[in-house]
Specification:
single chain; 393 residues; 6-stranded parallel beta sheet; 2 domains; 9-stranded mixed beta sheet; Rossmann fold; 13 helices; alpha/beta
Length: 393
Amino acid sequence: MNSACEKSDLLVFSHLRWDFVFQRPQHLMIRHAKHRRVFYFEEPVFGMTELPKLHLRKSIEDVHIVVPYLPVDVKAEQVQEFLKELVDELIFKEEVQDFTIWYYNPMSVSYTNHLKPSVAIFDCMDELSLFKGAPQYLLEREAELIQKADLMFTGGLSLFEAKKQRHNNIHAIPSSIDYQHFHRARQGLSEPADQINIPHPRIGFYGVIDERFNTHLLEIMANIRPEFQFIIIGPLAKIDQDSLPTASNIHYLGKKEYEELPLYLSGWDCAMMPFALNESTRYISPTKTPEFLAAGKPVVSTSINDVVHPYADARLIYIADHPEHFVECIEKAMNERAYDPEWLEKVDQFLEGDSWDFTFKKMVYLESKVKEQKDLKLAPVYKDTSFSEIGIV
């Protein structure tokens, strides 16, 4: 890691709870925490306290998890002031001096705008304004954040195309993969107890089950192919459990830890990504796409743009949007891809060189260039970077 970045602390402001689902922020921040102090600020929790306070703990990867607690009856106009004071309190108590701010949550700009980081980064992993329950002033806060940020990343190519004219130092950095972790699923791992008695063929999905998940598609598929066993893994968010389809061949196994996922994947015959095609999925770039492929599983997905391009373009996965076509593709995928060495070789060639370590190095390099230019009081110079030319491989 660049020595200039190692000397600075990292303050991360996220809309995602650290322990919710292990995804992009966790992959990146545990790597940062090997070299620098990382303070990961979650959104506030209301209640359980009469006065504003911070709760700090350390994850097993040495990331400092910071949770603001606010009184349940606090007025809306007081929330931002309380949060500002709590952030300042942490900076003082932890003797934070030289620091970078890494934003996932645009709403946090309202209580951090007074801070003077060496570098401000906006890692725009999703178009949050299109998600169900988005805060009222999210677009305004995002505009402020884009203005404030020295450096901006997007979590996918579609999002980059939508945002690229809004910042002069923006880079498409799609979420990556821990290849060896998921490759283990090809080895026939021991079955988890809650999956071992489910018959085959098994068609599986893991991820957050929210407005992006097409429950209607799942319901119809389960009805027209009762011999298919649909396994759904992940936490429920922003939708009512009663709205989920129920059938004898749909199995909701709940949230699983990241370390457990290969154990479940190993016993599937096909992976599916039945995303709804709506505003909330317009710019998503599902990390699970390369994970399913690394596990050696055939994949069928609805036509999410960042899945079609490049995965379907490379003929690695199947695309279907209607229930009848989706189940036909599942059957075709299982028949054509099962134990197909040529397809697996093509998958491995496609995924070669893609890793969270590589992604982390690219981001740190770009952060260090911004810091270097600012330290030297130089006008920023932005250009496309060939990372192989600078030894990041």
